[in-house]
Amino acid sequence: MFVDSHCHLNFPDLVSNLDQHLATMADNKVTHALVVAVNLPDLPSVLSLAQSQPNLFASVGVHPDYEDTIEPTVEQLVELARQPKVVAIGETGLDYFRLEGDLEWQRERFRTHIRASRATGLPLIIHTRSAAEDTIRIMKEEGADEFGGVMHCFTESWDVAKAAIDLNFYISFSGIVTFKKAEELKEVAKLVPLDRMLIETDSPYLAPVPFRGKMNQPGWVRHVAEHIAELRGETLATIANATTANFFKLFAQARAVQ
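Request: output the structure for the sequence above.
Response:
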């Protein structure tokens, strides 16, 4: 069985066909999925979706790409994290690819989420793009290793992966690892220890081969696992069992609310 550790199933294009996507999950033996928050205004849709389905979980957080949105406080995140089915803080982190100028607000928001993780005991979901050095630095400065978390949709080097693993973080691979030109990422997928690996779709984005270019969905996380198994010369069952066990070990609250 498989778990999609990161999706946005509440987004309109996906939730409008929820029954179909849940059926595809079942057909592909994807037993659970984590629906990840990106801002506070849309958080109710994340929470209600997770609460409506026994195999869906939720997170609480504000994505670094959302510049003009409600800025969360530690206290606010802590309070929201008490909602049923919430198993993580995030997604949070740094993204220097899309935005320019003084991005200190991003770094402060990231620190707020790490502090909320430490206050709640919930793991972090971290997004980093073109900002690996600052991301790892702030993780160290703020004690992100206390409850750990996951580097979601990982696209960085093995050195960055190793630094994150040393900070008690898991490495999550998305459909990008199936792309022909993602040669460096494929090498990272061979090196990450099985007990530190997760898989995800980040749907509706980044559909894996053979669906590249289409709207992604949680049921297709199986194809990420299949490609990683091929890269590593391991059975699909090995990848499925390890990543599922890792999910429930990291997101311990998910075990409690099943």
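The radius of gyration is 17 Å.
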